[in-house]
Design brief:
The chain is mainly alpha-helical and about 90 residues long. The chain is built from 3 helices and 2 strands. Helices cover about 50% and strands about 10% of the residues.
Amino acid sequence: MIRFLAGGFVSIAPHSFLLTACLHNYLTTSRHGNGQPVAKVYCDTGFDSGETQGPIIAFNLLKPTGDFVGFSQVCVCVCVCVCVCVSHES
């Protein structure tokens, strides 16, 4: 099905890497109002090549204090965002 719709994985890979690279850049440059980072990104490459980096980013969100945001807090935020987005589509 992917081969038929999108030209196969060879066509999808560059697009996936571009989206992932944009998110990586956003996560690594975003700061809270007090200058603390918004996320801790776990990456051992320069994130500059789709040949060495797949379309997955491992990260934790951080509070302005530098403490990690808990899993349940992230789930609540995602649920709220999804509900708001869905209600705006109607």
